[in-house]
Amino acid sequence: MPLDDVYAGILQANQQGVNLLTTTFWQQTAVSGNNDDMESLAEVLEGSFVDEIIKAQSDKYVYNNIVVRRLKPGITDAFTLPIQTPGELSSNPLPTTCYANIVYYSEPYVKGTSYAWKIAGLPQDGVTDGKLTSGQIARYSDFIQALTAGPINSNGNFFQLINSRDAKQGGTPDLPGVNKMSPSPTVMNFIGRQSRPLA
Questions:
Q1: 99 inside domain
Q2: Does residue 18 lie in a domain region?
Q3: Are 54 and 63 in contact (CB under 8 A)?
Q4: Which of 9, 72, 106, 172 has its CA 20 to 30 A from that of 16?
């Protein structure tokens, strides 16, 4: 049974010839009994992650695949959902070395347990003097609400976003869910560490 199983949800994207990955972690908190847990999580990622984050991304940033992989109790199988979903903003993006730092954690907060996604596709009109504009920060609001409101339902399967440290435990009921998230105001930049194209 997949109840309490832990998964990685990997978002594959491309921005003007550069391939990028964003990895998320989830625990299943309720099951439908239809043996469709991995497909359901892929739908959660498409509806609650991709369809919301694209409101803050350039249309030159395109999501290509959602890959779901079971991690706990064992790395046993994977499922891929091909998509072709561009950002919604008609604006040239900053280079892929520049990204919004989306910080997330669980409460009660434990020191050293905040994590972050490095989300590229930043529209040029969303940044001023190296900082996100108030309008750009507001574009993340639906995305944050969708992911921090609690377990997300798809086809009777419920999934809770968790952090990477807790994902390593796996199989433990009721791992702490991510319930706090915010974009860092300063635009981050890899120095000499541009995301490498995937083989």
A1: yes
A2: yes
A3: yes
A4: 9
Number of domains in the chain: 1
Q: Model-level pTM?
A: 0.91
Rounded CA-CA distance 129/186 in Å is 9
Structure tokens at 147: 């992911």
Distance CA 52, CA 46 (A): 9
Decide: helix, strand or coil at residue 37.
helix
pLDDT tens digits, one per residue of 108-138? 777 777 899 999 999 999 999 999 999 999 9
**Domain span at residue 166?**
6-189
For residues 132 and 146, what is the distance between their CA atoms, to the nearest angstrom?
21
| 195 occurs within a structural domain | no
Cα distance between residue 32 and residue 155, in whole Å: 7
